[in-house]
Amino acid sequence: MIEIDGSVGEGGGQVLRSALSLSCLTGQGFRIHSIRKNRSKPGLMRQHLMAVQAAASISSAELIGDRIGSGEISFVPRAVRGGDYSFDIGTAGSASLVLQTVIPALLSAGRKSSVTVTGGTHVPFSPCWNYLSEIFWPAVTRLGVKGGLDLEAYGFYPKGGGRVRCRLHPLSRPSPLSLTDRGRLLRITGCSAVGNLPLSIAERQRCSALAVLRQELGSELPIDLEAREVRVYGQGTFIFLKGHYELADAGFASLGARGKPAELVGEEAARELLEHHGTGMPVDPHLADQLVLYLARAQQGSRFATSRITSHLATNLLVAGYFLELETKLGGAEGAPGEVRILPGGNPA
Question: Which residues of this UniProt protein bind ATP (predicted)?
């Protein structure tokens, strides 16, 4: 039984989700305490509980401590079984984070799988649907993952009601990755959207982002930002920007909130994209930590450069080492650009 202190690294839900994925993949049980100790509301919230129960469902795990507010769980998986699964968070908890917990594990199953998650598709502190489909999925497809993602309904905070579906084929070992250069920036595309609010708000978000991008990047670069309405239960707004580079794409999003000017929503996403662009690095900060669980099981060693080292990245490297024979090297300081090397069972130097 692997013992994990849930307050290590970023001290939030990432430690738990990564441990669940790796436990299912390796068949090793674990006990984790101090879950989300570094958060204002420690312990399991509904979306974390659903991630736990989803992982238990696909692996027929023995589970102790799975309740709202729990600071400790024990999780002992059996074999992961492919099949059709449906999980309802019951709130606007992040559907993408639940999906990202079970996807790595279901790749090890001996048959195809389909997973539907009901919850939030565009909610704070998690990858939005656009990022999941346009950045994360193409990246793991590059590693050999096959299947597809479908958005069946949007879900904004706090109402939720969104629904996403993932189709997966089995994959014994992902392909390694070598990505330290991104090439030229070819164009920027994006979507500024509102649900049950005036379209003019989406236009203001779009215009704000466009103005910031044009000021820094000039008038020659193709930039195509769409303003649109989406059908959603409740209300909300978001903007998503995608930088298309020759060798790697990057994505950045910002969400609207009550009292938050539309202009600020657009500016936030644009500033994040520009910050990434200014480093010259290929992998955006959000994708960097999401790649770790796949590359930790790759056929050979991997190496990639990221525009910002985050606590989530360092945490995933740490937790992966609890479950797998793994050598890693993280070159750079937190908050700065850096390089990641991952070698399953070997020395990354």
Answer: 100, 286-290
